[in-house]
From TrEMBL:
The lineage of its organism: Bacteria, Bacillati, Bacillota, Bacilli, Bacillales. The keyword Transferase applies. Pathway: Carbohydrate metabolism; tricarboxylic acid cycle. This is Citrate synthase. Belongs to the citrate synthase family. It comes from Planococcus maritimus. Keywords: Transferase. One of its GO terms (molecular function) is citrate synthase activity. Pfam families: Citrate_synt (PF00285). CDD domains: BsCS-I_like. GO terms for biological process: carbohydrate metabolic process; tricarboxylic acid cycle.
């Protein structure tokens, strides 16, 4: 049976995550995402997705040390980054560096350790490329910071506040994995040929680059920029609705109820909103916009999606839009590698049929 885009076709059985759009449920390893990530660090959530159980104190210490050890990029890789044309996009640069990340020590690692190494190295690659693109010196990673805080440190060259780290970590944890999305499928297809893990991540990054999948939530940023202050929310939204414009950040192609990730990001923003004007604006805007949408479009059930609060969090931590998709990738590499490892355990090469419709 032909289905355009393979919509509704089951191609994989997985124990990593499930997405129930009608119920508005996302589960990591069988646990509702809020249960799996509540109070957890990036390191703890990554461990759970990779290994299928929550880390003990010893297991977490080992993973943390491994991630720290793989933060140091080989000198040749830094040299490769420096030779790329200045106009190279960050996503293209990330693909290039991951593809070149094939030194002897890495090749000798078993697959799980390669997954950890790539996860640790990708934020460093991203920061290196970003700093180069704005004409600033590379800031070396620190060994005394968490995965999330270190990424912010390398991007900005200044210590992130606890509020900034907490907000970004919540976003990273909630976007690590989301079932059989396009980039995850690409990673599994590549690894199914018995190619290597780096190649699988290159495939995933190339897929994530596409605006239909990993495109930055620029529309939400433009909306919040236009609103600017709580007093202008109603006026701006009513004008857009009167002109038939789409309200960015509302509605989702999978979830028919609220996006569970948006709910958790909203809760985090509510906790932190008094410490940040942008988070405060986002919380107030969502409430007012939802009210207006329900009044103007009854029965449509238009809820915020993950991009709405992702945009607010990125703006609150002063993350430039060019880093939105790379940062999404820094989270999702955990899911990509988890799926690639699962594919390796019971592998059959993907080889779907095509239906000829030519003359």
């Amino acid at each position: 049976m032909f289905q355009k885009g393979l919509k509704g076709i089951v191609a994989v059985q997985t124990a990593i995550a499930s997405v129930e759009g009608d119920k508005g449920e996302l589960r990591y390893r069988g646990q509702l995402v809020h249960e799996a990530t509540k109070g957890k660090s990036f390191e703890q959530t990554a461990y759970f997705l990779w290994y299928g159980h929550h880390a003990s104190r010893t297991e977490l210490a080992t993973l943390t040390q491994d991630l720290l050890s793989y933060r140091q990029l080989p000198d040749y890789l830094i040299a490769v980054a420096q030779t790329l044309p200045i106009e190279t996009s960050l996503m293209d640069g990330m693909r290039t560096l991951v593809s070149a990340y094939q030194h002897t020590e890495f090749k000798e690692l078993e697959s799980q350790q390669q997954a950890i190494a790539l996860t640790a190295a990708l934020p460093v690659m991203t920061a290196l490329l970003y700093r180069k693109s704005i004409g600033q010196e590379f800031i070396a990673p620190r060994s005394d910071l968490s995965h999330t805080a270190n990424y912010l440190w390398m991007i900005k060259g200044e210590m992130p506040t606890p509020t900034q780290t907490e907000a970004l970590e919540t976003y990273l944890n909630l976007t690590m994995e989301h079932g059989m999305n396009a980039s995850t499928f690409a990673s599994r297809v590549t690894i199914s040929t018995e190619s290597d893990l780096s190649a699988a991540i290159v495939s995933a990054l190339g897929t994530m680059k596409g605006p239909l999948h990993g495109g930055a939530p620029s529309g939400v940023l433009e909306l919040l920029d236009e609103i600017q202050s709580p007093e202008k929310i109603k006026t701006v939204i009513e004008q857009k609705l009167a002109q038939g414009e789409k309200i960015m950040g509302f509605g989702h192609r999978v979830y028919r109820t609220e996006d569970p990730r948006a709910i958790l990001l909203r809760e985090k923003c509510q906790q932190l909103q008094q410490k940040d004007a942008w988070l405060n604006l986002a919380v107030l805007a969502e409430s007012e916009i939802t009210h207006l949408l329900n009044a103007k479009k009854p029965g449509r059930a238009l809820y915020t999606n993950v991009e709405f609060y992702a945009a607010a969090i990125m703006r609150s931590i002063q993350m430039p839009p060019v880093l939105f998709t790379p940062t999404f990738s820094i989270a999702r590499i955990v899911g990509w590698t988890a799926h690639a490892l699962e594919q390796q355990q019971d592998n059959v090469i993907f080889r779907p049929q095509s239906e000829y419709i030519g003359n």
